[in-house]
Amino acid sequence: MALQGCAVWCSSRTTRHHLSPSAPAPAPRRPSRLAVNAIAAPKEVDALPSVGALEAELQRRVAAATAAAAAPTTTGRVVLESPEELRSTWEHRAWVGSATTLMAATLATGLSGVEGVEGALEAGAALFAAYVLADLGTAFYHWGVDNYGDGSTPVFGGQIAAFQGHHQRPWTITEREFCNNMHKLFRPAVPFAGALLLGAAAGAPAWWDVWSSSFLFLCCMSQQLHAWSHMKKSELHPAVVALQDAGLLISRKAHGAHHKAPFNCKYAIVSGWWNPLLDGDSPEASLWMRLERMIHASTGVEPRGWHEPEQAWQEQQRPGAGR
Ligand SMILES: [Zn+2]
Ligand SMILES: [Zn+2]
Known about the structure:
Elements: H1 2-10, H2 51-69, H3 90-112, H4 116-147, H5 157-166, H6 172-175, H7 178-201, H8 206-228, H9 238-245, H10 252-256, H11 275-279, H12 287-299, H13 304-307
Helix pairs in contact: 3-7, 3-8, 4-5, 4-8, 7-8
Bound molecules: zinc ion (2 copies).
The site of one zinc ion (ZN) has 5 residues, from helix 4.
């Protein structure tokens, strides 16, 4: 139902920048390093290729050169990762391990403080609320990093580049080793996890320890849930498939609309429960559009989708696809 709603209004617009009354022209393309004379000219005049064929060849080589560049684009987005960049390092493992340990200690402190049936119900409600609100939290976070800033933005630049690059190379997230993928979220969570543990040690209520630690953990784990939503069922553990099919974890089908024009819906990536409410039934009813207009009116800053060429959101062809 929600997916249908989005599909209806998503398909009613082909480019997001048309929505902005003051949207500037698309950013200039990155200059090609190709020289025209790189295309070998035939010796026989009567064997000259057509202009169309030459243009197609030029486009093909521009695409190949861009993909091989493995460098940030003019928007600061990194578009290619080498196999080495997909592996987990000990530093990645240390960040994920230390953040998880801090969160687990806070959760254990909270659970150890649970007393009686009432306390157990309170802890259960706190866990469920963390699960529901983590979905909402990821929606706002994902919308923010998809639309504002770039690779050079202080503190969040790496995450912004990763999320924006994800739209061009979504399969990469499925090829990363676990800690390589997860440290991007667990690392900035360490100070928060440390503060929560200090609060628990200082005698915070049990429900708060349970809620806050599980909320933070689920927000960080959303990167893995997101990765699963990009994998085929045959590549997933049956338990994950069952949770996706039951609607408890974001599924491939539920997340798919986020990667289709106009690329501005389905931001929630834990369960996806919040997406229908946040997306609404039309562009005008979308919370995101209203927020974007409010931000534009008060700061003059436009979201990325208003002024970047749509190609920046389009998925590139996966290397080796169709072989
Ligand atoms: Zn996105
Ligand atoms: Zn995705």
